[in-house]
Amino acid sequence: MVDPQFASNFYFDQRLNIDAVKLLPGEYFVTTREMVLSTVLGSCVSACIYDQQSRIGGMNHFMLPSSENSSGFPIECARFGGYAMGILIRELLKNGARKQNLVAKVFGGGNVQPAMVTSAIGSQNARFVKKYLAEYEIPILAGDLEGFYPRKLHFFPKSGRVLLKKLHVSHNDTIAKREKHYSRLLLSTVKPGI
Length: 194
Description:
Blueprint: E1 9-13, E2 18-22, E3 27-31, E4 36-41, E5 45-51, E6 57-61, H1 81-94, E7 102-108, H2 114-119, H3 121-135, E8 140-145, E9 151-156, E10 161-166, H4 174-189
Parallel strand pairs: 2-4, 7-8
Antiparallel strand pairs: 1-2, 3-6, 4-9, 5-6, 5-7, 9-10
């Protein structure tokens, strides 16, 4: 059975001349192939984790640090960092990565919407990913977290290479609209007691 949270938006990136997959919020992807994993981040965070020896890597894209239902059980949804990090690491290991060879690069966590500055969702996501990786003893080799700008991210899992572009000037509100849309979607799909 295919996991619906496994990214499936494949395309050929002509600028980079390589097969690619675009990750949306709540998705993850693991591969052994030579390709690029791409996403755009606002307050969300992506962890790019790879095995430096076997060259197996993957990325997630989560919206909120973690969540539990009213019974205290974690919600199994990759929109939440706790689940997104766990499933990414499990899939890497299942595909042949070794825990002791895993390293990470982390990005995002920007407080890009004026309303998010007070709730600091981006900062909460950034703190969460750093704490999670420290607890699992996966070193962070590089990253770009927090701030006020969205980011466009390209991760090459076989080499660990990252291309990052901060989107400093945005004359449209596409990212803010997406953040609001995914926040509403998240609230509508997480029901108390589930």
